[in-house]
Automatic annotation (TrEMBL):
One Pfam entry name: OLD-like_TOPRIM
CDD domains (alphabetical): TOPRIM_OLD
Residue ranges that the Swiss-Prot or TrEMBL entry lists as coiled coil: none
Highest taxon of source: Bacteria
Organism: Caldicellulosiruptor owensensis (strain ATCC 700167 / DSM 13100 / OL)
Matching SUPFAM superfamilies: P-loop containing nucleoside triphosphate hydrolases
Stated name of the protein: SMC domain protein
Domain Endonuclease GajA/Old nuclease/RecF-like AAA: residue ranges: 1-382
OLD protein-like TOPRIM domain mapped to chain residues: 425-490
Length: 658
């Protein structure tokens, strides 16, 4: 089974979100304090090892309820919601076995005799949680007891493929919190639900391990009979062929302890201790013991040049150890169950190579889709994966509320090559460019605006050619990221008519995507509703050029090639309108903006990585980019990003009539 869907309402920074998770790898990204950890915490509350509805467990307090502000002209009121709703839905694959033998020790539960409407989730099962099982008549509920009748459990679950655990928490006027966990199951999405009034069977469906950003091995590696780590150690120590040798060793340790502590034991026992507590003996012994639950005495040491307890080691070593132990437990001990591993910020205190190693281990843990991983991260390293169907959830906070955008990267995998492209998931705004011009844009921005790109969380991303621009823009629009474009002049022209390209091949004709491939949706994102007209105008002008100046349509590299032609001035005006509104189509190619007397890059050479290194060397020696490169058009473009506000018609200030 795997975690398919999570709905969270009124929990911490989350007013309402609905997330669909993939079977394999799921990555939650976003800036600090956007609510990523709150999503993981909500999952842990419902699917974690401890019972979320346990009365004495204060895992939900008044501070966990979503809080918002109501403002009017005279006052500001802070409102705290009264109910928390967390829905975790598990899916079972066709033909997947259910480990009924693991349920033999589970407590029984009452199920409601009436079916629950399949759409009850839309109302967060509000009416269902009002039903008090203690007030129902005998015929209105049925008791299911795995310990006494496992066949009854098999009959309940064998033809069911959707299972949901639903937690509701209520806050009363005194601030006390009441929690209720219920269990729902059904055949498919078109079937009504069966409701159980409690959920004693949870980890028997899906084994989970939650590793928070603040690592505490004492918590993640709890040793008891219910935790996965406790079960692992009990499995490893039970019926081992070294039992007799262990008992002898423990007995010897006890004898040595008695000798070491004999003096202090005698003096304390002969003093007031024995008088106050007659018949009581104080014992000092080392942690080893020969009692039946010997596994509870196991401690982990790590020797990385200095041997010490795992609790004394860094977060990176702790994470790697916990992941390794959980993987071992799932692969070699509890082999019947699928597993969910949730890991917050695995990059903490790790150098890049270690991050890549942890990422590889997470991919291995997936075990061809049997297991599932959900991580939160600020590192692009964890967005590089061998997993073809990686699911990315982008979390953002808008007006104090966590919101999400999500997508499966399979469609965009060919434009997410390295950390340069993966940085998009952590940006508020993105400037998309063709190639090495991303360095030029950063240098110009740094000279003219200082650190403003970083301050406003703007990424400048190269997509490796004009044919990748529209696909990358499609990605950023799906993520709701404010997107800008920088491209050479020929991006305004050209198309993929290979026959025409062959016709002018000897004159340098090229075949590639153009500004028209960005689509109307992108223009609307930049101009508002006015974008439809602007997009239509761009398409119209392109068609006019192709019809009247076909050769130039496929060969021109700069706007100067059209000087003297009819409507040249209008073409200039269109380019400027686009430029100051975030679509920077340069008046030439990037190389033509270098000074004529600057021999590093001539008009006949393309900008290369080697030349970028040379330019960087010159800049490091005190030269400014503006002294070797004409920055006017890029400055105009960046001014539109940093300074120019929007007018009422959706077009930014500085728009010329088109």
């Amino acid at each position: 089974m795997y975690l398919h869907r999570v709905i969270i309402k009124n929990f911490r920074s989350i007013e309402y979100i609905d997330i669909t998770f993939a079977k394999g790898k799921n990555i939650i990204v976003g800036k600090n304090n956007c609510g990523k950890s709150n999503i993981i915490k909500a999952i842990d509350l419902v699917l974690g090892e401890s019972n979320p509805a346990y009365v004495k467990n204060e895992n939900i307090t008044e501070k966990d309820f979503f809080t918002y502000k109501i403002k009017d002209e005279t006052k500001e009121e802070i409102v705290v919601t009264n109910d928390i709703f967390i829905y975790c839905e598990l899916r079972r694959d066709e033909g997947e076995d259910i480990p009924y033998d693991m349920m033999l020790k589970c407590s029984g539960f009452y199920k409601y005799s009436r079916s629950i409407d399949k759409d009850a989730i839309k109302n967060c099962f509000e009416n269902e949680f009002l039903i008090n099982p203690d007030e129902l008549r005998y015929e209105e509920k049925q008791y299911i007891n795995p310990k006494k009748n496992i066949d009854q459990v098999i009959e309940e679950f064998e033809n069911k493929y959707i299972f949901a655990f639903v937690l509701k928490a209520y806050r009363n006027e005194d601030g006390d919190v009441k929690k209720d966990l219920r269990f729902f199951y059904r055949e498919d999405e078109n079937s009504n639900w069966t409701m159980a009034f409690s959920a004693p069977i949870r980890n028997e469906f899906l084994q989970s391990a939650i590793i928070p950003s603040f690592r505490d091995p004492m918590v993640q590696l709890r040793i008891n009979q219910w935790s996965w780590y406790g079960k692992l150690l009990r499995h490893l120590t039970k019926n081992h062929n070294k039992d007799d040798e262990l008992k002898k060793a423990f007995l010897r340790v006890k004898e040595i302890a008695d000798e070491v502590f004999s003096d202090v034991k005698q003096k304390i026992s002969n003093g007031s201790f024995n008088a106050a507590f007659p018949g009581t003996e104080i014992l000092f012994q080392f942690s080893a013991d020969e009692k039946p639950d010997i596994y509870k005495n196991v401690v982990i040491y790590i020797d990385d040049g200095y041997k010490s307890l795992i609790t004394d080691k860094g977060s990176g070593i702790q994470s790697a150890t916990i992941i390794g132990l959980f993987s071992y437990y799932i692969n070699y001990v509890n082999t019947k169950l699928s597993a969910l591993l949730c890991l917050e910020e695995p990059e903490l205190y790790l150098h890049p190579h270690a991050c890549r190693t942890i990422n590889y281990k997470l991919d291995e843990f997936l075990n061809d889709g049997k297991n599932q991983v959900i991580i939160t991260t600020h590192s692009p390293e964890f967005l590089k994966t061998i997993e073809p169907n990686m699911n990315i959830i982008l979390a953002r906070k808008n007006e104090g509320k966590t919101a999400i955008h999500q997508l499966n990267v399979k469609k965009f995998k060919d434009v997410l090559v390295d950390n340069n492209q993966n940085e998009v998931f952590f940006a508020d705004k993105v400037i998309v460019c063709e190639g090495y011009d991303n360095y030029i844009i950063k240098w110009v921005a740094e000279e003219l605006y200082g650190n403003k790109l970083n301050e406003e969380n703007i990424s400048v991303i190269s997509v490796g050619g004009k044919d990748n621009i529209s696909k990358f823009v499609d990605l950023t629009l799906k993520l709701g990221i404010d997107t800008y474009i920088v491209a050479d002049f020929d991006y305004f022209l050209r198309d993929k008519d290979e026959e025409k390209v062959r016709k002018y091949k000897d004159k340098g004709a090229k075949c590639h995507e153009s500004i028209e491939n960005l689509g109307e949706r992108f223009f609307i994102s930049r101009f508002g509703e006015e974008g439809k007209k602007i997009f239509g105008l761009v398409s119209k002008v392109r068609n006019i050029i192709k019809q009247n100046y076909e050769e130039k349509f496929y060969t021109a590299k700069r706007i100067e090639d059209f000087r003297g032609e009819e409507k040249f001035d209008r073409l200039e005006a269109i380019l400027r309108t686009l430029r100051i509104n975030g679509i920077c189509i340069l008046s030439g190619d990037i190389e033509s903006f270098f000074n004529k007397d600057f021999r590093l890059v001539s008009e006949t050479h393309k900008l290369s990585l080697e030349k970028i290194f040379e330019i960087n060397s010159i800049l490091n020696n005190g030269c400014k980019i503006s002294s070797i490169f004409n920055v006017v058009e890029i400055k105009e473009f960046l001014d539109g990003i940093f300074h120019i506000s929007e007018t009422s018609d959706g077009c930014r200030q500085g728009c010329v009539s088109v």
